[in-house]
Amino acid sequence: MTDKFAPAAKILKDHNYDSSKLIPILQKVQDEYKYLPEDIMRFIANELDISPAKVFGVATFFAHFAITPKGKHIIKVCNGTACHVKGSSFVINTVKDKLKLKDGQDTTEDMMFTLECVSCLGACGLAPVMVMDDVVHGQITPAKAVEIIDEVIASEAKNAD
Prior knowledge:
This protein is of the alpha+beta class.
């Protein structure tokens, strides 16, 4: 077993190789790897003696699981009805432009930011809503979204010094 699989092996051992604990196992694995790598999911399936399809099915069914790498900072913009009516599409397009995201791309090449468009953030009264690193920003404008991203970029640069 390579070092890459060691954390997953420990998580499986901590859960007594119990396939009924697949969701908590995947949660811990995602905490460790920051997403669910395909080879790790296959390893889990093999170790739990279940089909890879079952593991992939769970990983793709629940929205909180990620099967692709995510950036250090997660930006969620609501595109539900209330937010859409209040202009969230302009915020989304501005964030995509700011982060230089191409069509189909949701994470920046430097793995600093991931943009997620979500159906509801549960804050319709604050529409449009953006959440960045679990901080809710209500009545967000395209300009304010860029300002928030710029603050994070500046903070990252300062911390790198």
